[in-house]
Each structure stands twice: as structure tokens, then as C-alpha cells.
Design goal:
Blueprint (H helix, E strand, L loop, with lengths): L6 H6 L1 E5 L3 E4 L5 E4 L6 H12 L4 E7 L1 H11 L4 H6 L8 E6 L6 H8 L6 E4 H14 L5 H4 L5
């Protein structure tokens, strides 16, 4: 990883690919998530290979349920009630992807959203802006209204 990137730049170029739930796409593009059914090993390998081959990607890591739980525990260390109610098995597996600065995020997001075994793809800046609109105005605008491709 390029050590000259600031923490903020890292956050602004991160996306998360949730692969913990088996997900299928209907022909209309909508997602069918199969509760309780994990993405297969083959699907996770295929997703990793696809991410690794994308020219927009600087680096990526796979986060298993234990690592996700450890991060969650650190983040919410002051909320013992929440920690007691949450198990490792509650955590999703995911790929954490760092995009190269100056590259368009829309192409990798759209490509990964269509993959078997992907339950969701979240681009951090869009999520931040969506949460801001929700907290300030009580509305959840569609992602294409918050974050247009190329922004």
C-alpha cells in the first residue's frame, strides 16, 4: 500500500463487497438474498480473482467473520450490551477494497454487484453522504442521486 496516502484518502477510496450471504440476481437486476446461506468457497474465490484483476484496484483483503467481529468489538468496546448480544456468526464476511486514486469507482461497483455470491457493494463516500442526508433531513436518497458515477 502506498504510505503517502492519508487516512482520509484511504477512506474516500474504500469499498466493501459483502459476500457473506448467498445472493442471486433476477433478470431485472434485483437481488435475492438467501438468508442463512453463505456464499460458496468457489464464489468467494471468483470474487477475489475478479477484484484482483480490476485495474481500478490498488489492493484488497478478505475479512472473515472472526476478523469482522474483532473490528466490531474494537469499534463498540464501550457498548457492552451490544457486544454481549453479538456473536461471531452474526458478522458478514467481506472484501475490503482500496481503489487507486483518480480512478472511477462506478465500474468496479457495478461489476461486483452483478456477481453470484455478492449480497452488496458499498462505496464509502456514497454511504457517508447517504447517512448525512438521513441524519440531517430524515431521507434516504437513492445512491445514484447521492453519488453519481465519476464523482
Amino acid at each position: 500500500m502506498n504510505s503517502s496516502l492519508t487516512t482520509r484518502a484511504l477512506v474516500e477510496h474504500m469499498m466493501t463487497v459483502m459476500s457473506a450471504l448467498a445472493a442471486e440476481r433476477k433478470p431485472d437486476g434485483s437481488v435475492i438474498v438467501k438468508e442463512g446461506k453463505a456464499a460458496t468457497s468457489a464464489q468467494k474465490v471468483a470474487i477475489g480473482e475478479l477484484i484482483g484483476g480490476m485495474p481500478e484496484v490498488q489492493s484488497y483483503t478478505f475479512e472473515d467473520q472472526r476478523a469482522a467481529y474483532d473490528d466490531f468489538s474494537r469499534e463498540f468496546a464501550s457498548n457492552q450490551t451490544l457486544l454481549k448480544a453479538t456473536k461471531v456468526s452474526d458478522m458478514p464476511e467481506s472484501f475490503r477494497v482500496l481503489l487507486k486514486q483518480g480512478n472511477d469507482w462506478a465500474t468496479p461497483v457495478a461489476t461486483l454487484r452483478r456477481q453470484p455470491g455478492v449480497a452488496g457493494v458499498f462505496y464509502v463516500p456514497c454511504q457517508k453522504d447517504t447517512l448525512l442526508a438521513l441524519s440531517r433531513y430524515g431521507v434516504r436518497p437513492p445512491e445514484d442521486k447521492v453519488c453519481s458515477p465519476g464523482s
